[in-house]
Specification:
294 residues, alpha+beta, Heat Shock Protein 90, five-stranded mixed β-sheet, two-stranded antiparallel sheet, elongated, HATPase_dom, cell membrane, phosphorelay sensor kinase activity, His_kinase_dom
Length: 294
C-alpha cells in the first residue's frame, strides 16, 4: 500500500471540506437574509403572496403569514368595535338632545314651565347618561364590583321613588312583594339592571294599571300590563340598538337599555329573561342562584 504523509492527508481534507463549508455558509446566509426580508415585509403587512421555495424559509413564511392574518383580524375587530362605539355615542347624544329640545320649546311658548315637566325631562336625561356610563364601564366591569348581602326592598324602593312622577302621570300603581328577601350581589349594578327594567315597564304599560314586582321561585319578576312585545320581535330584545316597533313610537328609545341590562346580568351571574304576550303583558324575570339567596 502507498503511504501518505500526514500533511498530505490534512491538505486533502481541507480542500474537500472547505467548498462544502462555503456552500453551507452561503445557504445559511441566504436563508437568514430571506427570513429578515420576510420579517421586514410582515412588519409592513406586505408579505409576498407566493411562498419561498426553500423549506426553511417556507416554514418561516407560513408562521409569519399566520401571525399577519391574526393581526389583520384583530385590527378589523378593534375597528368594528370602535365604529359601533361611535354609533352608540352619536345615538345617545341625539337622545340627550330630545329632553333639552322639549324644555326649550316649552320655555319659548310659555311664560311659565310646569316643574313636573322639567323634572321628567331631567330624569330622561339622567337615564341616558347612566346608560352611557354603564356602557363605558362594561370593559372594566370586574374592577368595579362589591358583592354584599342586600335586601331587595331596599334596592327597589329608591327606584320607585325616583320614577314616582312617571307613575303618577300614567296613574300606575306599583305593587311590591319581596319582603324578607336578601341576595348576594353588587347593589349598584343590580340597581342599574332594575332601573332599565322598571322604566321600560312604566313606558310601555297602559295607564290606570298595576306594575307588579314579586319574588317567585328564586326569581324577581317585574310585570306590566300594556302593549306587550310581538312574538317575532321578542328574541331580539337584548340585541344592541334594537328598538322594535314599540320603541320607534316612543321618545328616548335607544335600544340599549335591555342590552346593557343583559350584559350586566351575565357579569353578575344572573339569568335575565323576558316573556310577553302582545297587547296584554310583559314579564321580566331575574333568576338568582341558591347560594345568592338567603
Amino acid at each position: 500500500m502507498y503511504s501518505v504523509s500526514l500533511e498530505v492527508t490534512f491538505d486533502l481534507l481541507r480542500f474537500t471540506w472547505i467548498p462544502i463549508l462555503l456552500v453551507v455558509i452561503r445557504n445559511t446566509y441566504r436563508t437568514y437574509k430571506e427570513k429578515q426580508e420576510l420579517l421586514v415585509a410582515r412588519k409592513q403587512h406586505l408579505l409576498p403572496v407566493n411562498a419561498p421555495s426553500k423549506q426553511v424559509a417556507y416554514t418561516y413564511w407560513q408562521e409569519l403569514q399566520k401571525i399577519q392574518e391574526e393581526e389583520i383580524i384583530l385590527m378589523r375587530t378593534k375597528q368594528l368595535a370602535a365604529d359601533k362605539r361611535q354609533d352608540y355615542l352619536l345615538l345617545w347624544s341625539h337622545e340627550l338632545k330630545l329632553p333639552l329640545t322639549a324644555l326649550r320649546l316649552q320655555a319659548e311658548n310659555n311664560t311659565k314651565v310646569d316643574s313636573v315637566l322639567i323634572l321628567q325631562e331631567l330624569q330622561l336625561m339622567q337615564n341616558q347618561l347612566e346608560m352611557l356610563l354603564g356602557y363605558e364601564r362594561l370593559d372594566n366591569f370586574e374592577h368595579d364590583l362589591d358583592f354584599v348581602w342586600t335586601a331587595l326592598d331596599k334596592v327597589l324602593m329608591p327606584i320607585i321613588k325616583e320614577y314616582s312622577l312617571f307613575f303618577i302621570e300614567k296613574q300606575l300603581t306599583p305593587k311590591i312583594d319581596v319582603s324578607r328577601v336578601t341576595v348576594l350581589t353588587d347593589q349598584k349594578w343590580l340597581t342599574f339592571i332594575l332601573k332599565q327594567l322598571i322604566f321600560n315597564a312604566i313606558k310601555y304599560a297602559n295607564p290606570h294599571t298595576d306594575l307588579t314586582i314579586t319574588w317567585q321561585q328564586n326569581k324577581l319578576i317585574i310585570q306590566d300590563y300594556g302593549i306587550g312585545i310581538s312574538a317575532a320581535e321578542l328574541p331580539r330584545v337584548f340585541e344592541p340598538g334594537f328598538t322594535g316597533s314599540n320603541g320607534r313610537q316612543k321618545q328616548a328609545a335607544t335600544g340599549m337599555g335591555l342590552y346593557l341590562a343583559q350584559q350586566v346580568s351575565q357579569k353578575l351571574e344572573l339569568k335575565l329573561m323576558l316573556l310577553s304576550k302582545q297587547g296584554e303583558t310583559t314579564k321580566a324575570s331575574i333568576e338568582f342562584r341558591e347560594e345568592q339567596i338567603r
